[in-house]
Amino acid sequence: MSHAGPRSVMTRPSWRQLLPVGLAIVAAAGVARAQNAAPDGLSHPTAYEAQSFGIYLRDFWVRLPVAGARTTAAYFVLENRSESGIRLVSVASQVAEATELHEVIADADGVMRMRPLTTGIPVPPGGTEELRPGGRHVMLIGLRDALTPDSVVSMSLRFADGLTVDVKAPVLPPEGRAAPEERGSAHQHHDATHEEHQE
To answer: Cα angle at 130 between 43 and 163, to 5 degrees?
Structure first.
């Protein structure tokens, strides 16, 4: 079955048909929600595609927090298959008191530090942005409940044109995933700073 090519992400019809790979997603009022069963062995979808907007999302996961921590991070891959640039402007989740888009960069002394991405994350036409440990990511700040390896975190991704896509991400241990720099001072300092603000 063939589909029409993706339209500009600035197009905002009142009713949208969203079709992920191996899943069916429908949207009303600009919000996408998974409707079909996930692949075998999973209780949630692993990929989401807003076909009309050329947005493809995959490989979601949330890092299992260390004991006692109230801050963690979420990661995923965002592909722009359209002919226009797109911008992820925010991510919301009920599991945390606040969420922020961040990136880890090296300062003039080579020390890895974290800074907020106040204008969001742009992806050029045909581009791919991987949110990953040691790079850009979503901070989940002030966790309301303890997350365990069998937890699934619901998140709402909002784009600059008003499109919102609801996704689910499994909570996974960081072993074998976190980049060396993210295990170091940048995230340790970040966690401590947020704990101080919450006391």
So the answer is: 70
What are the domain boundaries of the chain?
Answer: 15-198
pLDDT of residue 138: 99
Q: Is 8 helix (H, G, I), strand (E, B) or coil?
A: coil
Q: How many C-beta atoms lie closer than 10 Å to residue 98's C-beta? A: 13
Instruction: Work out the burial of residue 150: count CB atoms within 10 Å of its CB; fewer than 13 is exposed, 13-18 middle, 19 or more buried.
Output: exposed
CA-derived radius of gyration, the chain: 17
Q: How far apart are CA 97 and CA 140, in angstroms?
A: 8
β-strand pairing of 47-50 with 15-18: unpaired
Domain 15-198: give its CATH architecture: Sandwich (2.60)
Which segments in the chain show pLDDT lower than 70?
1-46, 176-199
